[in-house]
Automatic annotation (TrEMBL):
EC assignment: 3.1.3.18
Enzyme class: hydrolase
Pathway(s) it belongs to: Organic acid metabolism; glycolate biosynthesis; glycolate from 2-phosphoglycolate: step 1/1
Family: Belongs to the HAD-like hydrolase superfamily. CbbY/CbbZ/Gph/YieH family.
Source organism: Hallella bergensis DSM 17361
GO molecular function: phosphoglycolate phosphatase activity
Protein name according to UniProt: phosphoglycolate phosphatase
Catalyzed reactions: 2-phosphoglycolate + H2O = glycolate + phosphate
Length: 210
């Protein structure tokens, strides 16, 4: 049994695909930038916010700042009306891990305040002991820093740690920290991408994570 579970949020815990891609497209439209498809936007999920827009097209620093500010404002507006659901099996598995004594944490490219709000709304705050958002780390995924910081915080070794995510960034982050990794296929990444990143296990449902 793992002592420490480090979970991604978007596409792993919360089904945020629609609200993220819609917000990205609305941001591009409002700023008069070239439009990108929902699929193109989806492929950037998991990167830090400015990195998402930078992956879509070349931008200056000032344009990236404008995109980030506009995205956050529009996201807050959409978040009042667009419901974000927890993926099937997530609550049951987290409850099981918690009952078994595992420490459950989150490492996300989402900002800390937004991440904490979702954790509270979804009733996960009674299980999640530690949250790292994009503004809590000096170096983002796929660098192992978020995982290393979490393990150091709890004094737990890589061999006792499982990192779970839906994107190659998550798997690479965990592998580079020396941890066990699991890729879930129902999120934003593909099986091929998760395999190429070296996931130790690939699961079609959260409940089937071993």
């Amino acid at each position: 049994m793992y002592k420490l579970i480090i979970l991604d949020f978007d596409g792993t815990i919360g089904d945020t695909n629609k609200i993220i891609t819609t917000t990205m497209q609305s941001t591009l439209r409002e700023l008069g930038l070239p439009m990108r498809s929902a699929e193109e936007c989806r492929k950037t999920i998991g990167l830090p916010l400015k990195g998402c827009f930078e992956a879509l097209m070349p931008m200056s620093d000032s344009q990236l700042d404008s995109c980030a500010d506009t995205y956050r404002r529009i996201f807050d507006e959409y978040n009042r009306t667009m419901k974000v659901d927890v993926f099937p099996g997530v609550m049951e598995k987290i409850e099981q891990w918690h009952a078994d004594g595992a420490i459950i944490t989150l490492a996300s490219s989402r900002g800390h305040a937004s991440l904490a709000a979702f954790v509270s709304q979804m009733g996960l705050d009674q299980y999640v002991s530690y949250i790292l958002g994009a503004d809590d780390v000096e170096i983002a995924k796929p660098h192992p820093y978020p995982v290393l910081k979490t393990m150091r915080h709890f004094g737990i070794a890589p061999e006792d740690t499982l990192v779970v995510g839906d994107m190659s960034f998550d798997i690479l982050m965990g592998k580079r920290a020396g941890c066990h990794t699991c890729g879930v296929t129902y999120g934003n990444g593909t099986v091929e991408e998760l395999q190429a990143a070296g996931a130790d296990q690939i699961c079609d449902s959260f409940l089937s994570i071993r």
